[in-house]
Amino acid sequence: MHSEKRDQNFDAIADKFEKNIYGTSKGRLRHELLHYHLSKSIDFSTLSTALDAGGGTGEMSRVLIQSGVSVTLSDISNETLTIAKQKCAESSALSVIHSDILGLPDCEYDLVICHAVLEWLNDPYVNVRKLISMTKIGGYFSLTFFNKDAQVLGNLLYGNFDYVKQGMKVKNQVRLSPNKPLQPKAVIDFLLAQPVSITSMAGIRCFHDYLKDPTMQQSHYEQLKEAEIAFGDKEPYMWLGKYFHILMRRDA
């Protein structure tokens, strides 16, 4: 297995990861919005194979398998892969690979997914090139990453002025706090030089994290989701999402 020294491994906290991400409104909303944007552009019934790169506990893999897609799920954490197999009911349509992205075998897939992974990697752009090469010509590549611009905005709104001033660097990194958020326009500039065409873009959680009354994240969840869908792929709101989603097709 290929190894990168600084890539985040969630082995020690896999259960906490599952609970803190998918057991909350923020995790549920992120997953449901990504599912919405994918299904809006892609007819899953036309797909045979998919790669869920760094797919963790298999939340999106389960959706794809239920749609009749054979899924290869990779992750560097054995513990999250164990949870994923249970979540997908030990389906024969699921294959798991204990590896980082750069260590994956050179196969091509109808759909490649890399959601909320780049911000944990030592060299995200090298990994993106690898994933593009694993997307069939004419196939789709779905990329989502933690938005650095939104991170700055959120911290300023929370009054963390000193934290922003010092470059949002802390001595003791919170284990579920992404190490290396990216700026959407920088990622887009990089992708424009690759053999892909961007199909759609959207902000994920443009409003959820900024609500003045956090209890509304639960009490008004459906109204909030409706607003996220209505405005998340429109200017200027898309740039405010805590995560940024880019769906593209491989050209050559």
TrEMBL record:
- Record GO terms (molecular function): methyltransferase activity
Which EC number applies? 2.1.1.-
Query: Keywords, A to Z?
Result: Methyltransferase, S-adenosyl-L-methionine, Transferase, tRNA processing
The organism's superkingdom is given as: Bacteria
Q: Which GO terms describe its biological process?
A: methylation
Record's function text: Catalyzes the methylation of 5-carboxymethoxyuridine (cmo5U) to form 5-methoxycarbonylmethoxyuridine (mcmo5U) at position 34 in tRNAs.
Q: What is this protein called?
A: tRNA 5-carboxymethoxyuridine methyltransferase
Provide the species name.
Paraglaciecola mesophila
Traced from the root, the source organism's taxonomic lineage reads:
Bacteria, Pseudomonadati, Pseudomonadota, Gammaproteobacteria, Alteromonadales
The gene it comes from is: cmoM
